[in-house]
Amino acid sequence: MHTRATRDAMKRSGAVLVPLLIVFLWWALPLAANTAKAPASPAELVGDAKTALNQGDMDAARELFSSVPAPAEGERGGTYLYARMQLARMAWADTDLDAAEAYVRDVLAVFPENIEAKTLLRSIEEARLPAWKKLLQDARRFMPSLLHGTLMTLLLVFVTMLVSPVGGLFIALGRISRFKPLSTLCWLDIWIFRGTPLLLQLFFIYYGLPAIGITLDPLTAALLGLCLNYSAYLAEIIRAGIQSIDDGQTEAAKALGMTYRQTMRRVIIPQTYKRIIPPFANEFIALIKDTALVSTIAMVELMRAADQMFNAYFNVSVLFFAALIYLAITTVFTVTFEWVERRVGVYERR
């Protein structure tokens, strides 16, 4: 009887202990397997760090990147290079220059010729410079290319300044001509070139004319577009200047026996140019800034040179230097035209 009771008790205890043992083994075996698992490889650490970065967990990413060990002798160490450069970039983005420099020097200690690390170290050293020293350093770097572009800008300005007043004069004379077809043709020229954007005209000349078999190089296309556009604007200024001359001047010239051509050449036009110097000055100052539009047709002038260097270095100083050059050019032209105005007596002394 006692033996049967003992056996029954053992059966009941076994019925309870066996499920508990199964549950314990189900929990303990994976834990033991994880405990015995080998440490993560550098590639796995970098992969986990990338995942943390994509999830926005910057602290976890830093910890994982920092866990990547330096390569042993004979190993390539690509994962270590990647991890340390990522840490350097993250510190650079947080403006932690000391940490960024430390990570970069870790890279250079193993890979002394790494170009990316050298470039970032140079950027860190430049960021520590005083503002005025950095500005001087940027000037030495950017000014040669900007000055080369400035020469092209000045070429465009001077050629347009020489050609467009002559073209504008002929268009203005045609506009006031009594020969109706010529007057209409000149009016049409002014209407088209004053009524459409200069940028569109440059696009049409450089990209549109090849469709009909006329191909121009960027410099020729730029000069043609600027000269045609400014000839139309100056034509209206000249026409207004001619018509502002008192009719008595023309009648007096006729009384002296002058022909129409002589009257225009010796009486009307000399007085006209004295009166139109101020609006001419405004147009030519606008021309200096409008030359920036030719950068859209592959002309490397001042604005294009500045844009290329800004895209290469992402340094706003280059735009500042370009603005200074434009300001210097317009200032010289403004002072020159004011001197010319005083010389020809546009304004009477009171």
Automatic annotation (TrEMBL):
Q: Which PROSITE patterns match?
A: ABC_TM1 (PS50928)
Sorted alphabetically, the keyword list is:
Amino-acid transport, Cell membrane, Membrane, Transmembrane, Transmembrane helix, Transport
Subcellular location(s) of the protein: Cell inner membrane; Cell membrane
The record, for Pfam families, names:
BPD_transp_1 (PF00528)
Q: Which is an annotated GO molecular function term of this record?
A: transmembrane transporter activity
A biological process from GO: amino acid transport
Instruction: List each copy of the ABC transmembrane type-1 domain by range.
Output: 150-337
User: Could you tell me the membrane topology recorded for this protein?
Assistant: Multi-pass membrane protein
**Gene3D superfamilies per UniProt:** MetI-like (1.10.3720.10)
Q: What is its main location?
A: membrane
Membrane spanning segments where? 151-173, 185-207, 219-235, 312-340
The subunit field of the Swiss-Prot or TrEMBL record says: The complex is composed of two ATP-binding proteins (GltL), two transmembrane proteins (GltJ and GltK) and a solute-binding protein (GltI).
**What's its job?**
Part of the ABC transporter complex GltIJKL involved in glutamate and aspartate uptake. Probably responsible for the translocation of the substrate across the membrane.
- This one is known as Glutamate/aspartate import permease protein GltK
